[in-house]
Specification:
Chain lengths: 193, 193
DNA sequence: ACACAAAGTTGACTCGTTGCACTTTTGGAT
DNA sequence: ATCCAAAAGTGCAACGAGTCAACTTTGTGT
């Protein structure tokens, strides 16, 4: 095994961060986002508010501590796709396999409910996705040997990243995802249902 | 001429609102968004901060006073399209005709620069667009005799509303818009440039 | 053992935004 | 003409998020 080179210092730092994130999520779920102040969280984690803000950029960031690397999975899905599979298909497979199950989890449900019912969090969450457009677009372009800022690739990336917003309120999320990917593959067709 | 039915009351209210918006835009352009406080604007317009917030929902809204009814034009374009024209074509025509020229205007340039260089304004602006997804999607669906929350229609609406974000940094914005509409019409094609 | 840097504390401060109690204005009904 | 209720505006105090500067504590490398 590789001995972790991290000393007590970094471990304590990570512990503090975790304590803050845990306290925040617990309080948010208990009382609701708007009913919890930064000072409440800081007190619960037994740190000062200044320390809290050295670990997290803002109140919203406390909620999304875990889901930082959204694009990593997408980029990997595009790069390590099976031979002959198109980029769009790889993305479709990844989305169906990784984005749908999350909503089913028991504890994830109340987390999703928290985000959905809090406008500030909805807004922050949506922006999280669109912020990854550049990364995913560049990855797609690289696979196809096009320039990193190729418009078509960026557009595909953006459209794929729109999927969560478009499907979140649908009764059958899987069918919704399929519908959107069909539209992406075949284009907008006025005459079919 | 049609005598304006508005009394002194509404006229004064409108004047106050305009004074606030003018003062705000002037100060923002002079010093930059973050260097201007709400109290500065209220003072410049000679009103109290309370009054200011009765006219505008927040600091960002002061900047976008003029471009409220984004969706009205889009909805009209879809509804009053020429016979036989597809919804997608109508949207393409409207976007090419109405969204492109704006960027060319002289004073509009520094306004755009202000928005582009201020993260808070960029975020607010992007959300303005996506907020119209429901309206435009419903309008498209109505034209095609589909349910108002038809997923394909909402998706098309969303994708069209993504266009400003995708094309704003492009050297040739017209070509960029055309490219995206081609992608929307024909679907994502891996093999063509 | 020592010195330096990173982590944390404290308290006051800025700034957007809201609430409350109050005055002024104005349109309409009597 | 007059009076009233609603709308518009004011002043001020407050709240919560986030920042700042000076200071203390705690690891770490030498």
């Amino acid at each position: 095994m590789t001995e972790p080179v991290v000393g007590r210092r970094e471990r304590k730092k990570a512990a503090t961060r975790q304590a803050i994130a845990d306290a925040a999520l617990r309080l948010f779920l208990e009382r609701g986002y708007d009913q919890v102040g930064i000072r409440d969280i800081a007190d619960a984690a037994d740190v000062s508010t200044t320390t809290l803000f050295k670990h997290f950029s803002g109140k919203e960031a406390l909620v999304f501590d875990q889901e930082q690397d959204v694009d990593a999975g997408l980029v990997a899905a595009v790069r390590e796709r099976v031979a002959g599979e198109s980029v769009a298909d790889a993305l479709r497979r990844y989305v169906l396999a990784h984005w749908l199950p999350i909503a089913g989890h028991p504890q994830r449900a109340e987390f999703v409910a928290l985000v959905d019912t809090t406008p500030a969090l909805r807004a922050y969450y949506e922006q999280m996705w669109t912020r990854h457009t550049g990364t995913l677009g560049a990855a797609i372009a690289a696979e196809l040997g096009r320039p990193a800022d190729d418009l078509a690739c960026l557009t595909l990336a953006r459209f794929v990243l729109d999927i969560p917003a478009l499907t979140s309120t649908r009764p059958d999320r899987r069918a919704a995802v399929e519908t959107i990917f069909e539209l992406l593959r075949d284009g907008w067709n006025e005459r079919t249902g």
